[in-house]
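Now for our target.
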Amino acid sequence: MPTYHYQASTENHCDHCVEGFDVMQKLAEAKLTQCPECGADIKKVICAPALTSQLTRDSKKTLSEQNIEKNGFTQYRKVGNGKYEKTAGKGPATIDRENL
């Protein structure tokens, strides 16, 4: 569910909305127009998204060949132009673009 940032759009405001506040809302929900604390008019503020990287130290553990095979996936490694060699899992030992 996305998080939206709202801030007071008028001079009448409270401490809650003057600095702005975040609200988790479904995409289908209508945007807020009034501060839930004081009822002042508010506006949705465009902010940079909060992104997190999935490439952490732990990702090597989750992407290990043993985990890939244990979870029913197959992993291939590119060994040439259009040629791939299986490194984990079930399936053909090699895949060649010319033999498809």
Residues 3-45 form one domain. The helical segments are 15-18, 59-62, 65-70. The chain has a mean pLDDT of 83. The radius of gyration is 25 Å.
